[in-house]
Amino acid sequence: MTKPHFILTLVFALVLNACNTKKQKVNEPDFPHLTEHNEAAVTLGEISSLHSKVLNKTIPLSIHLPANYDSSKKTYPVLYMLGSDYRARFAMLAATLDYMGEGQIPEMILIGIDLPEGNSILLPTREHKDTTIPDNYIKFFDTELMPHVDNKYRTAPFKVLYGASNSGFFTVYALLNKPHLFNGYFASSPSIMHIPTVLQQKIKSGPLKTLAENRSLHIIYSDEEGLTDIVSEFSLVVEDHKPESFTYKVDELVNQGHVPAMDFILFLLALYPDFNPFNPGENLESLDKVTQHFDRLSKRYGYEIKPPIGVIFNLGFHTILSKDLIAAEEIFQYSIEVYPEGKESYLGMGLVRRAQGQLESAKVMIEKALTIDPEFSLAKRWLQRLEK
Predict the structure, then answer these.
(1) Nearest Cα to 171, choosing from 159, 182, 185?
(2) Strand 215-222 and strand 184-188: pairing?
(3) CB–CB of 10/64 below 8 Å?
(4) pLDDT digit string, tens, across residues 265-318
(5) What's the whole-model pTM score?
(6) What's the rounded Cα separation, in Å, for the pair 182 and 244?
(7) Helix intervals (H) in the chain
(8) Tens digits of per-residue pLDDT, 58-80?
């Protein structure tokens, strides 16, 4: 049973401070545009919880959904983040997914698992190297949390686990014990100095050894953390024993500190290296080629990936500039069919009608975009041009 949700928000002025910082009154004469009445708030999502019988406690959760989740019918891959009670980190991951989801990666659901007792709870015990708790967390993911998320949200069959530091150890541990659980495993500065012999034995003879499905592990750390030799030894064993279906990548960054700030972007770019169809070397100048590109990605990742609306809009806009209005109309008609809730779909069709000289029809389409989002500034500007 879940507890009632409430909205998790951050005020712009406080994003980089601790999330529990008390609200302070702004000096009005110095900052007349920042008063208590017109602060701009960023909604990160919802805080919820799930009672776990496996762990015998209630687990706090932090949920961030794609911007158009409520108005779309799509399914979304899910990224599970350990340690989302570190609010600044959760905010950064949520914002990164939103930003990159405009064309660099698919939009994703972010599920944060708070660890109020500290992420060291995911390590084996110091004295006896007992792994009961991390083993139970794997079971919690498998039998309780992931089924709960799949039942509550429109999820695609593609899951990723992200952990940092001691949570990064758990990410590696989960992979070696249950590699089928997630499609991708991200470990930032993982504490794999704990039970290294056990981990190496798991690589040599555990379930990863006979894995047939495509899975991946990406480790990122910084050179001054003291992890270089440990990760190198771990990597040698992985390379000697990993199955062909397993992708393994390690990045050692220079002078970036424990849990490098840029780790998440590097993880996502490596997971979806050619998601953007307009990367150098690609020549996808038509709608057919773009849709074929995403059909290939769908087969690779095992779920339907539609071209992002931003990608379609850019293709259509440049097609208008090239004066191929028949092709441009086809592109935006496709956009309306795939994204009937998308403001860019109607703005694009409005620009096609404007280029065709159908000014009243163009106005209707752009006004439709503004009914979806009254604050859509690009549509406002184009509408002003039409009304002059």
Answers:
(1) 185
(2) parallel
(3) no
(4) 999 999 999 998 876 555 568 999 999 999 999 999 999 999 999 999 999 999
(5) 0.86
(6) 17
(7) 87-100, 132-140, 146-152, 166-177, 196-205, 228-241, 263-271, 287-301, 309-321, 325-338, 343-355, 359-372, 377-387
(8) 999 999 999 889 888 889 999 99
